[in-house]
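Hi everyone, sorry if this is the wrong subforum. Our group has a chain we'd like a structural model of before ordering constructs, and none of us has done structure prediction before. Sequence below.
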Amino acid sequence: MPADTLLTAVRNHLELGPTHSCIMEPITKGASGRTIIRLKPEGFPTYIGIHYTLDRKDSANYIPVSDFLKGAKFNVPEVIYDHPGRRVALVEDLGDVDLLSLKDEPWEVREPIYRSAFQQLDKLFYTRVPKDLEFQAPFDEDMYRWEQNYFFDQLADEHLSMNPAIVDELSEHPALHQMAKDLGASSRNLVHRDFQSQNIIAHEGKAWLIDFQGMRRGRQEYDIASLIYDPYMDHSEEEQQKLLDLWEEVSEEEPIASIFQKCATQRLMQAMGAFAKIGAQPHQEWYLEQIPKAAKILRSVIKGSDVEEALLPVLDAVDAQ
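Answer:
Right subforum, don't worry. Here is the predicted structure as tokens:
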């Protein structure tokens, strides 16, 4: 079992005897398909143990991407022990305080962490990548179309049970094809791919990045939109503008409005598809609760755009639930 494998890993790393006490606490947040456990060996620091399978293509990328980010001086937890054969790793425990847990704190408390997160993202844009480091498939036209179809398949079809003929017609709307084509043809840099509040840990007054195994090349605006329009946080329009202003202050540039809007649309479509799929699993109803919040944000993002006609029927169906 994964827990036993992780327990063996920490005993081997610390050369502990079989009777040495080690408390294990499952970490259930997130939906990466990995087993993540906090390990507390008596008399030693705590570790985060990660056991992964190869069912997801990005799982094996965690260690090489971590090494790259650590070498480039990003704020990421240190990998302390790695056993690729058993698909386990022990990493530095940065604690439980992520941005989501700070949701109800005043802006003055959250602002330094958001600033630090944006600084990390801005740095990612300029960081050179080793030629031998392989990432996940880049965002191209096909990847953006995959995200769109994921939205219609998992949300409109499976979760909302909309008329299949209508779903097919909406998913093939020319504006969606054009959006994927426009974004897929634009320049690419590294993106985290899941740059949201649960994947940003607040530690020692700074933002630390986790769950970066899905890193790939794409548009920087995708990550910016992921944080600003994060359904988990459900920022008000005033907070969204504060975050956008903060990004512009950190990066000393303003996102191209049309690209930013399209990336926000793509990200929210992908997130809603994921909420529907994960929420259908036992004991994962919390993700279904995020769908109405994401729908509200997406409705605002697409207002007056070419894709509004294709997406409003699905958003209306969410509101009617």
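For your construct planning: The mean pLDDT is 95. Residues 100-320 form a domain with the Aminoglycoside 3'-phosphotransferase; Chain: A, domain 2 fold (CATH 3.90.1200.10).
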